[in-house]
Amino acid sequence: MAANKKLLVLPGDGIGTEVMAETRRVIDWMDKRRHVSFSIDEGLIGGAAIDGAGTSLPERTLELAHAADAVLMGAVGGPKWEKLPFAQQPERGLLGIRKNLGLFANLRPAVVFDALVSASTLKEDVVKGLDIMILRELTGDIYFGEPRGIETLPDGRKRGVNTMTYTSDEVERIGRVAFDLARKRGKKVCSIDKANVLETTVMWRGVMESIKGEYPDVELSHMYADNAAMQLVRNPKQFDVIVTGNMFGDILSDCAAMLTGSLGMLPSASLGAPDASGRRPALYEPVHGSAPDIAGKGIANPLAMILSFAMMLRYSFDMGDDADMIEQAVQNLLNAGMRTGDIMEPGKAKVSTDTMGSALLKELDKLAA
Ligand code: NAD
């Protein structure tokens, strides 16, 4: 039996609780059937935490998060809390936990499953077999740089200011994550910048060049952000790992997500810096939100959440074979024609959240036999 893994589970709000329930069944399955054991704490975040503890991010949740090897989160938010002042809204809890854990690297795989190739708005031959990773720096850049604000000029005009800023150590830190990821994938990193107009990114490019010698097995290329947006829809399969700053990453990761055409299928991971013992804070969550329009109906697609757990196995616990098995089980279900409403196509079988979860467990049983 491998060492016990300590998880914090934060179901959150809306469909977060529904897709987490199915993921808990997969965790239990892993616990019983594979060489791993999980001890699980459950905590409050978002609207559920506002209702249960008076704040979207209770101290207790942070304590549990720091004590855990990894955090698995559903989604937060919903109409019930929309009228609260901005600083008290459920989404502040999510931003708060990311900040508190120092999660600077956001990993978003964009994978097109063969069975869902027609869900993309792009032509089949452009996206079939797509498997790329967008790595976005999450804690720096123009979103956090100072000075910032809106001022009134002496002549009455307004002036808005934001500052794009990175330090070389911040770039090096995210750059190393990119090279390490590429080593486990297709051994190519494309670094995205605007080094033709922005000095910050001239520095970014220089840092990427300065560390590439340490990864002789990985090929490094550079691309301007505007070209990258174009190339992502023209020929996305040319990429393996894309690494970029917070703002370009915000835009390009959504663009890449939509190559797959299905929000209910997209997992993500956010990683922090390892401590002296090599333990790295990590939070795994689906890209989608709490989907109030379908919450409580039992029809949400649980696969993005379950695939987020697979990412946890791969990136926090080095259990790549088990992650592969979950991904294979998902692929088999889709090939067999099982679909939740969000990915429904004519001629396929429309199933509920828990039916999809049960079918996945059966598929795992078959693969493990
Ligand atoms: P959303 O992702 O919740 O939903 C967008 C659309 O996609 C909806 O029609 C929804 O029904 C559908 N959808 C999303 N996930 C699905 C799934 N797993 N299965 C089937 N259909 C799915 O985005 P939104 O509607 O803009 O936001 C709703 C709430 O979620 C807001 O309060 C928002 O702030 C919050 N939100 C939270 C997160 C997060 O917790 N990480 C992310 C995005 C939005």
Your description of this structure?
This protein is α/β, with parallel strands linked by helices. It is built from twelve helices and 14 strands. The radius of gyration is 21 Å and the shape is globular. The model has no long low-confidence stretch (mean pLDDT 95). The protein binds nicotinamide-adenine-dinucleotide (NAD). Residues 15, 19, 75-78, 91, 94, 263-264, 285, 288-294, 300-301, 304, 340, 342 line the site of nicotinamide-adenine-dinucleotide.
Radius of gyration: 21 Å
Cα distance spanning the termini: 18 Å
CATH superfamily of the largest domain: Isopropylmalate Dehydrogenase
**CATH structural class of the largest domain:** Alpha Beta
CATH fold group of the largest domain: Isopropylmalate Dehydrogenase
Task: Name the shape in a single word.
Answer: globular
Number of strands: 14
- SSE topology string: EHEHHEHEHEEEHEHEHEHEEHHEEH
* Structural classification: alpha/beta
